[in-house]
TrEMBL record:
Key word Lipid metabolism present: no
Name recorded for this polypeptide: TPR repeat-containing protein
Spans of repeat TPR: 112-145
Key word NADP present: no
UniProtKB keywords: Repeat, Signal, TPR repeat
The organism's taxonomic lineage, starting at the top: Bacteria, Pseudomonadati, Pseudomonadota, Alphaproteobacteria, Hyphomicrobiales
Gene3D superfamilies documented for this protein: Tetratricopeptide repeat domain (1.25.40.10)
Species assigned in the record: Mesorhizobium amorphae CCNWGS0123
Superkingdom, taxonomy of origin: Bacteria
Signal peptide residue numbers: 1-27
Length: 198
């Protein structure tokens, strides 16, 4: 179970070290669609690519681009608070991180990654109920958020709800079929549940 705890923060935050933005070819096009529409179109295409990709490393690169899109809040203030929250998390100052993230979700409630980051901090503090609430909000805003679904699966497994954990990991694989950790968890949980049924 210790491995599971180590996995979730790394998984949910795996995109932190990525560049803050990936400039698409059309970024400088004066007749490009509005930023929000363009971002959504980019995400939609990236998710199509992620579902189709059968090379694990290529899929990881696509997932990294998705994380980059998710991290873009559209607000310099929000981005700064997210950076501060990340620094506080790295220093295990979870209360400080929560202070910043409470402000993020208050100021920009439609920013899914703010909710996901706060869910991660609650998870690291073992506040599973609060983490689940923030995961739920993340998934309302971005149902394809494989990081939030992975967090849900981790909480379900940690609290002894293996069937629910399995179902959450299966949802992850429907979005991101080449995620190795999800594949491993589905295999492990399937075997455990089959053994319990005997």
């Amino acid at each position: 179970m210790r491995i599971l705890f180590a996995l979730i923060p790394a998984l949910l935050l795996s995109g932190i070290a990525l560049p803050a933005a990936i400039s698409p070819a059309w970024a400088d096009d004066p007749v490009a669609p509005p930023v929000a529409a363009t971002k959504q179109a980019r995400l939609d295409q990236l998710f199509v690519d992620l579902r189709r990709e059968r090379n694990e490393k290529a899929a990881e690169r696509i997932a990294g681009r998705i994380w980059s899109e998710w991290f873009q809040s559209g607000s310099a203030s929000i981005d700064l608070m997210m950076q501060w929250s990340q620094k506080a998390m790295e220093n295990q100052k979870y209360d400080v991180a929560l202070d910043f993230l409470d402000q993020v979700v208050t100021l920009q409630p439609a920013y899914a990654e703010g909710w996901n980051r706060r869910a991660t901090v609650h998870f690291m503090m073992k506040n599973y109920g609060k983490s689940m609430s923030d995961i739920d909000r993340t998934l309302q805003l971005e149902p394809r958020h494989f990081g939030a679904l992975s967090g849900l699966a981790q909480i379900m497994a940690e609290t002894g709800h293996k069937q629910s954990a399995l179902e959450a990991w299966q949802k992850v694989l429907a979005i991101y079929p080449m995620m190795r950790s999800a594949q491993d968890q589905v295999g492990t949980l399937s075997e455990e549940l089959a053994g319990e049924g005997i």
